[in-house]
Amino acid sequence: MISLSDENLSPVVLFFFLTKKYGHEWMSWAPDPLRHTLETDFKTTVAKKNLNRALAMAVLATRDTFFDSWEAFHFLVPALIVGVPSADTMQEHTVGEMMAAVDDALYLRTHLDTLVPVPKFAETVARYVAAHAKNQGVWYLPEPLAFAADYAAGKKYRCKDCGNEGEVLFDDGLCDTCVHRFDTETLGAWRPDPEAMARGLGRNTELFFENPPQGAQARFLLLTRDPAQYTGSQDDVCAAKLVEALDYVNARRMLRDRALKGIS
Ligand SMILES: [Zn+2]
What are phi and psi of 167, to 5 degrees? Predict the structure, then answer.
């Protein structure tokens, strides 16, 4: 049995608890009727944070906006994790909070009893996650945030013909300058110029990372097993932040799984 007044309730546990009791119906209830029903049926107060978490989970279960739109992601991460949604543009999410929210979302979407596919994260969400991570000195991103790894590491290309360096926006291996991708004539279409393509231009490119992630990745794998190896190097500082973030996610998973057993 869970306590609806417990401010640290797992959003996933709350979701399956409500679904077991009310079926899918509760997901369409407005906040006030939902709270009223819960308080009547369970003869307890419902923490405001849990009401917010429940509403956020209903969005995750019924729509793809968390995966499609950075604005929805921005709003739902604090709703799920701290239980207080905020659209405040200055709000920063820690890597641990973003990992935990994505972990909850993926768990939910893979454990729904309807056969809806788990969406892929859109580029705007990946860039949003990468921007927050980099702001905290984290440029290597493992699962569950690996979908944003290329953006955090600054995946770029260099053209060995014209010398242009640019962000990889289309991932087709072409130099945007040599194929006139952004010329005003084709602006908006962002298609390579067919004539340049016919001449075989723009293919002499190589990929590189602005912030190569390999060092931090290796140190992350090592420090996960043996924290005593910490040296304070730049890679270690990044890796240690990730170890801490994943410790947080793993602790939440343990509490979640234990509580789920109690309601099944
Ligand atoms: Zn070029």
Answer: -70, 145
The answer to whether 191 and 181 have CB atoms below 8 angstroms apart is yes
pLDDT, tens digit, 9 for 90 and up, residues 158-215: 999 999 999 998 889 999 999 998 886 656 678 898 999 999 999 999 999 999 999 9
Report how far ligand 1's centroid is from the alpha carbon of 212 (Å).
22
Residues 169 and 236 in one domain: no
**Taking a C-beta distance cutoff of 8 angstroms, is the pair 160, 210 a contact?**
no
User: 222 and 182 share a domain?
Assistant: no
Which domain does 233 fall in, by range? Answer: 1-150+214-264
Q: What is the structure's pLDDT at 227?
A: 93
CB 158 within 8 A of CB 177: no
Instruction: For residue 257, give the amino acid letter.
Output: D
**How close is the Cα of 66 to the center of ligand 1, in Å?**
36
**Looking at 190, 209, 228, which one is the last position of a domain?**
209
Residue 76 CA to ligand 1 center (angstroms) comes to 41
CA of 159 to the centre of ligand 1 (A): 5
- 224-254: per-residue pLDDT in tens? 999 999 999 999 999 999 999 999 999 999 9
User: Are 2 and 92 within one domain?
Assistant: yes
